[in-house]
Design brief:
Largest interface: A-B, 72 and 76 residues
Distance between the termini of chain A: 80 Å
Number of strands of chain B: 0
Number of helices of chain B: 18
Shape of chain A: globular
Structural class of chain B: mainly alpha
Largest sheet of chain A: 6 strands, mixed
Helix content of chain A: under 10%
Strand content of chain B: under 5%
Distance between the termini of chain B: 18 Å
Helix content of chain B: over 70%
Oligomer: heterodimer
Amino acid sequence: MTTVPLRNRARVLILLVAVVLLGAVGTGAVLWAADRSAERDRVQAGGPVVTPGEVTLKAPAARQLLFRNMAWGPHRDEVVTVPADHPDGPRTSSGVQCLRFHAAAATGICLQADRGPLQDTYRAVVLDEHLRELRSFPAAGIPTRSRVSPSGHLAAWTVFVSGDSYAGTAFSTRTSIVDVRDWNLRENLEEFDVIKDGRPYRSPDVNIWGVTFVDDNAFYATLATGGQTHLVRGDLAARTLTTLHQNVECPSLSPDGTRVAYKKRVPGASEDAPWRLYVLDLATLAETATAEQRSIDDQAVWSDDRTLLYAMPGDFGADLWTVPADGSGSARRLLDAAVAPAFLG
Amino acid sequence: MYVADSRSSKAPAAPAATRPGRREAADGATADRAARAAVPGTVVVLGVVSLVTDVSSEMVSAVLPLYLLTGLGLSPLGFGLLDGIQNGFSAVVRLAGGHLADRRGRDGAPRHKAVAAVGYGLSALCKPLLLLVHTVPLIGAVLAADRTGKGLRTAPRDAMISLATEPAHRGRAFGVHRAMDTAGALLGPLTAFLVLRMAGGPLLADGGQQQGYRAVFAVSACVAVLGVLVLLLFVPNRLPAGEPPEGQPRPRDGLALLRVPGLRRLTVCAVLLGLTTVSDSFLYLLVQRRLGLATEYFPLLPLGTAGAFLLLAVPLGALADRIGRRRLFLAGHGLLLLAYGLLLSPLDGLPVVVCVLVLHGAFYASTDGVLAAAAADTVPAARRGAGLALVGTGQALARFACSLAFGALWSAVGATTALTWSALALAGCVTGAAFVLREPTSPTADPEVSP
């Protein structure tokens, strides 16, 4: 190419102007985003009242509901407590920040993000009854589910790990269980032996998520392989996972141990909203659709043997909704700006 | 075509973009100057374009899964298959890109730059679109358009690198380009997290906090536009592309290229070796499981490979120029075989992990750009785009087939046996390829590699 110096200078000039313009646009976008982000630290008028106070996991005098507070303001993302019979009342904040949280019998599990200079890292933290850290475990990705066994002896968590799947950008999950009595950690439930339809099964695409505990040995969870999800019953001592039923995600065992509430992928639903909240009878394997008509992406919690509590997208990220487990009634919003609930007492 | 190429190496077809002083410097024959002369300005500019574009696209790749998952609440399983299909599609688009780039414009020159610009431009357009679309089918369409752009630009870009460089130095030139490309891929995620940090947003968008992600997409779009501008402004419009052939190349001439013996042999070998190259994700999975790596280090494994690739691409590219590109291409697969061997050995621990990753990076450094350089040796300049696309597409499709087969094998016989079989198959293919590529000339007799 015949590059006359003047033309070269013109090119460099064009490039410099473009760098300045594009730099301005980029900087503007970042500043605008930063400004919007800063709003989250200011209390919104009409939002729930949150005051710092003592939050414990000891059996309370009156039943309590604990959850991650999503309301904007200084206590955003902290674990808060409200009286279970007065959930929209003032919130008492613990000062402990968790992305996911669950608790039972004086043990809490809190999935936290540690903000590094460039990357966030994640930890699963086991909390004592005063929400103090007992021990923490590094987690390989974004927290999604957490559960504590009814006895408070076992804690489970699931995180998303990227780049772990052979097809490329797809996600895979990592689920771990720890015994808080001897800190025996099963870091990856995928290493358990899978018994699918009565036969040993192995595949690199196995993913496991959403543990719900029966007792200190048995649990239920979701196992996905070959594009299909399964309800599995896990045995910690035997290190096995046995498939029971298809198309079950994020199971949650009822207090009486007879049913699991779960996300079911329903035919005909849009790709953006593929799930509905169902309840499976473990004895008969009969499925009951709840009255919640919208797509749900949460591991539900049982308020009692008849009622489910779950998160739905809301103005501040998520709200908690409730619906009868037997398919009757209708869904009702219980409280705003909350996620990851757990009942105590 | 050997004749044409060897003539061009005597009367160097260095692009006009190379400053005239450089050609004389090469004749001056001090080692240092010769080394610099080996990398024409056009290659550096194309490297800058790739670096900038990779920063832009890797910014998005790094945060897109997080955004889809925690911002839009999509299922983790939803994107796997889609991704595989798009990779296959992109490989096929590459063939079209190579063919279109070889077609002559009204001025009789091939349109490498124009086709590459369309490819880079299409991908750049997709970045701001991500700000606008919020549903799975639309996001899928935007990602597909982005991949189409990537498929279109790859072959013309490699053709331009080969046409701008004297045949004797192509290995190094491709090495420089791949090193810059990889540097962009490493800088992209860092930039993305820096932007997220400055935007004050959490990485986890589950509070409906997507502003940080929007800032990342906006900055990525700006960076992508910059890449296109550098291409348009600083890559020469015309590169020495040989005598115009009689008439325009037709699509089916692409397959006729397989009648060129050198290219056919290389393509066959690339496909055979591709069929036994276990994909990166599987390799990392095996590293973690067999070498007992702690889970939290898992996301760092690709960085290890990329780091080794970045550091080794230029020296190994230069080595390819010295000892023969095909020979190094084969040796690179030998390195991969060593990595498999380490994975199968009873050794474990961090040093072994590092060794495997360095071998893996060295495998890329001695095969990725080197294959393009070797292919360029065999294709006449007028069909360079289509020829490079053919080899690249063959290799990409073979690797994708290997992914599927390896996944099935893993399910059937377990990870260790699957890897053992792959290692044996790779050893067989390397031996076979060594035999095929030896013919008809030894590397030193190859006119382009001879000093």
